[in-house]
Write a structure and sequence with these properties.
The complex is a heterodimer of chains A (102) and B (445). Chain A has five helices and four strands, in the order E-H-E-H-E-H-E-H-H. By secondary structure, chain A is an alpha/beta fold. The two termini of chain A are 13 Å apart. The chains are: A alpha/beta (102), B mainly alpha (445).
């Protein structure tokens, strides 16, 4: 069971993307828990996920997250702006798969 | 283009992001959001009353709801809901403010909420000279207390937070259950915060308040009145519209980042309108425009006015952009985004267009994204100020589709959707040329 966390600021449309990525994972037959969290909540829950993806709204936090994740195995990525806007679940899923080395 | 984008991303986005992530500002925003469940119940009660009690009177002057069975009872039930929610909005906000301020600084929220509430109640008029004793008057529990709560409640909660962080607390052995030890931990910090507030109230009562002025009244006169007065001017309305677009341009949710101002000033004005409407319908609202007594004053341009006349489909009036794309765009990528964005767009959610097109950090789209809502706001503002349409007197959730939103927000003024339509058309005319111009641009890979 993989654990993937999306980080965003408000979380209005990120939940839409979460659903799409879940579907992709299902299609690929990979058990994966996907969820979205606001940035301050996320910082308190860094020990759970194997992959953390930042939404384009919070991509400026990449450096801060990188520092917090130093010395852990957690992979960090940023969702490209247009991929996010297009709610492209397949593209985001392949980004996750790549980070996990699937 | 790429160079401009990376330049902005490097220098401006972090600054905008810093502002957007300041903890106190987040606490203010979350405090307003936190009141929503209760505030919405009150808004619904007022709106149902508007529909069954006040609206039919527009068409039939002899209409009297109290003579109609069932409807009369519904109005009575709504009165109870209102009394427990919007009538005491100040209490609800004080709780939410103390809770959220404590939470952003990672300390126990319940104790913080109670400290903030207690601080507000300290300032409420409790006795009338030579009159009744032991009453809490509604005029000291309404939305105008928000400013007192943010200042004095903010101070007492800040003291509470600092002392907890400094560990100036009572320590109990580990064998004590956490719920009990948590409460004990908060005793010294909470008492210190409350005493600080009480001393300020006392000193005030000896000096500025020696004639019998209350802190709550004084703060609404000195701080709330000028701010709300300013909020009715075109300059302030245009400026905030501009700033919302600007923050969004940097990828930050404009209305969210600016919630402390939007909700703290125009939102407070709206609550006063709602309460006046509950008491006496549109007539009461119109009669109290410009009333110097801030507890009773009502306002022409309030928080919901922006949603009604400018931000259809989300900030920037992007539903008109989507329409322009459907009509004029020859670009496959634009059309895909528009198809994806139209569903959420009807409910005023526009992240797909904002990030997909994108509008964020796109210097070309910046022009219409700032201009369209400015023009739309101006149209709505003038129509309201000139009395062509009733002011917004109802709270409608922002996900309400356009046109319906302005109709309900004005308690069913049929002219409101027409004003929205004019603003909508103007916004569309501003977006369209940029959509057409984008046709000749190379499609982004």
């Amino acid at each position: 069971m993989y654990d993937v966390m999306f980080v965003c600021s408000a979380g209005m449309s990120t939940s839409m993307l979460v659903e799409r990525v879940k579907k992709e994972a299902e299609k690929a037959g990979v058990e994966m828990e996907v969820y979205a969290m606001g940035e301050s909540e996320a910082k308190k829950n860094l020990d759970k996920p194997q992959v953390i993806l930042l939404g384009p709204q919070v991509r400026y936090m990449e450096f801060a997250f990188k520092k917090m994740l130093e010395g852990t195995d957690t992979k960090l990525g940023v969702i490209e702006m247009r991929t996010y806007g297009m709610m492209d679940g397949a593209k985001v899923y392949s980004q996750i798969a790549e980070l996990l080395g699937l | 283009m790429q160079a401009i984008q990376s330049f902005m991303e490097k220098y401006f986005v972090p600054v905008a992001a810093k502002i957007g992530s300041m903890r106190v500002l987040i606490a203010v925003r979350d405090a307003f959001v936190g009141t929503l469940p209760v505030a919405m119940a009150g808004s619904i009660a007022v709106m149902i009353n508007a529909i069954i009690r006040d609206m039919p009177g527009q068409f039939n002057p002899d209409y009297d709801v109290s003579a109609i069975p069932v409807l009369a009872q519904i109005v009575a039930v709504n009165g109870f809901v209102w009394q427990g929610t919007l009538a005491v909005a100040g209490i609800i906000f004080a709780i939410s403010w103390g809770y959220n301020l404590s939470r952003v600084f990672d300390v126990d929220g319940l104790a913080g909420a109670l400290v903030s509430l207690a601080t507000l109640i300290m300032g409420v008029q409790f006795a009338v000279p030579d009159g009744p004793w032991g009453w809490l008057p509604l005029r000291h529990l309404g939305a105008m207390t928000y400013f007192t709560t943010m200042l004095l409640g903010g101070l007492s909660v800040a003291i509470y937070i600092i002392l907890i962080k400094r560990k100036i607390t009572i320590k109990l052995p580990d064998s004590v259950p956490p719920a009990i030890s948590k409460a004990f931990t908060a005793i010294i910090p909470a008492a210190a915060g409350l005493y600080a507030a009480a001393i300020i109230y006392y000193i005030f009562s000896l000096t500025i308040g020696a004639e019998g002025t209350f802190v709550i009244d004084w703060i609404s006169e000195v701080i709330a009145a000028p701010l709300l007065g300013l909020s009715q001017g075109y300059g302030a309305v245009a400026l905030i519209t501009f700033l919302v677009s600007l923050f969004w341009f940097f990828g930050l949710h404009g209305p969210n980042v600016l919630a402390p101002i939007l909700e703290g000033i125009w939102g407070v004005g709206q609550l006063n309108n709602l309460n006046a409407f509950q008491e006496g319908g549109l007539q009461a609202v119109m009669a109290n425009i410009g009333n110097p007594n801030m507890q009773e004053a009502t306002f022409l341009w309030v928080r919901g006015s922006f949603d009604a006349y400018a931000w259809f489909g989300g900030s920037g009036g992007t539903i008109t952009l989507i329409l322009a794309i459907f009509l004029f765009s020859k670009r496959a990528d634009y059309k895909t985004i528009a198809k994806l964005g139209v569903g959420p767009g009807i409910f005023n959610i526009n992240e797909p267009v904002m990030f997909g097109l994108p509008i964020v950090l796109n210097p070309i789209m910046l022009i219409p994204f700032i201009l369209a809502p400015l023009v739309a706001t101006t149209i709505g503002y003038l129509a309201t100020i000139w009395g062509l349409v009733a002011p917004v007197t109802q709270s409608v959730t922002w996900v309400m589709p356009p046109f319906l939103l302005s109709f309900l927000a004005t308690a069913g003024d049929w002219r409101a959707p027409i004003v929205t339509l004019v603003a909508f058309a103007a916004s569309f005319v501003i977006w369209a040329p940029f959509v057409i111009a984008a046709n000749s641009q190379k499609e982004a890979e």
